[in-house]
Write a structure and sequence with these properties.
By secondary structure, the chain is of the alpha+beta class. Helices cover about 45% and strands about 20% of the residues. The longest helix is centred in the middle third of the chain and has 19 residues. The protein is globular. This is Helix-turn-helix transcriptional regulator. Keywords: DNA-binding, Transcription, Transcription regulation.
Length: about 270
């Protein structure tokens, strides 16, 4: 029997400022999936076969931290897959790990290497639990305990970055000087804090946002005549050639060639819960 099951879960109200959603995927088929930069960091719990990422020449651990990336990558698995993923808002993961998100840039890091006793205990509980709804509850209890311990300067800085992130979502072409003004920080302070919490510098993150906005435009224009110039303008690119060049760097395809191999989907600008 062929089995593939994908489910999304909404975080509780207290966690919604920090966690976008959780997703669970189960499959007994071999996996070969192309993924793009989504603009969010993640914690991944594997209950069966972890995923191999050839671009990094690494296999995810059963507990993995996936940081911000600026390149497309493939995900492979030959055995049964069952995984639970916590998708954070782009500037929030450091609150729960007590580490700068920048440490995980373009990497898949074993969660066990962090030597976080409570996180390791959580991973053990999840690996031995068959009901994924119960697993989500375990994860939420751990996340809430971390908030209780860390509601201090980090939480305040996350609120500052939230304003900057929202501005980038709306206008990716916003200058760093303007973004620093929104957060009431000098330019150097803002860049340092943004890099620490988000995991990459503001200009590079704006590249990811433009790309994801373009994917969203394409996603909602499926079956219609798509104007690359209109997508470029709506997504914040300077012109059509800039759009095509950046899109290929971040996806491995030109916009039109991607349409021939898969349906465009924006992880960042789609809310599945």
């Amino acid at each position: 029997m062929i089995l593939e099951d994908f489910k999304f879960y909404k975080p509780c109200k207290l966690l919604q400022p920090y966690v976008r959603y959780y997703w669970v995927f189960k499959s007994n088929q071999p996996q070969n999936t192309l993924t793009f930069p989504i603009g969010c960091s993640q914690i991944i719990f594997h209950k069966q076969t972890p995923l191999y990422i050839p671009e990094l020449n690494t296999t995810q651990d059963r507990l993995a931290i996936s940081g911000q990336v600026n390149f497309p990558s493939h995900l492979y698995a030959n055995g049964n897959v069952e995984m639970i993923v916590v998708v954070f808002h782009p500037h929030a993961m450091s609150l729960f790990l007590n580490l700068p998100t920048s440490l995980f840039y373009n990497q898949e890091v074993s969660g066990y290497s962090l030597e976080n006793k409570k996180l390791n205990e959580l991973a053990i509980r999840i690996s031995g639990c068959e009901d994924n709804s119960v697993c989500i509850n375990y994860i939420e209890k751990w996340l809430l305990s971390q908030i209780a311990n860390n509601l201090s300067e980090t939480s305040y800085n996350i609120k500052r970055m939230d304003a900057a992130i929202r501005q980038i979502y709306s206008f990716p072409q916003t200058t760093v000087t303007e973004l620093s003004s929104i957060t009431c920080l000098c330019k150097k302070q803002f860049e340092r804090l943004f890099h620490s919490l988000v995991g990459m510098n503001p200009k590079e993150y704006a590249r990811i946002v433009r790309f994801q906005k373009a994917l969203a435009q394409m996603q909602h224009q499926t079956g219609k005549e798509i104007s690359q110039a209109q997508i470029a303008y709506a997504s914040g690119y300077s012109d059509q050639s800039h759009f095509i060049r950046e899109f290929k760097k971040l996806s491995g395809y030109t916009p039109m060639s991607l349409l021939k191999v898969s349906a465009p989907y924006s992880d960042l600008f789609t809310n599945p819960v």
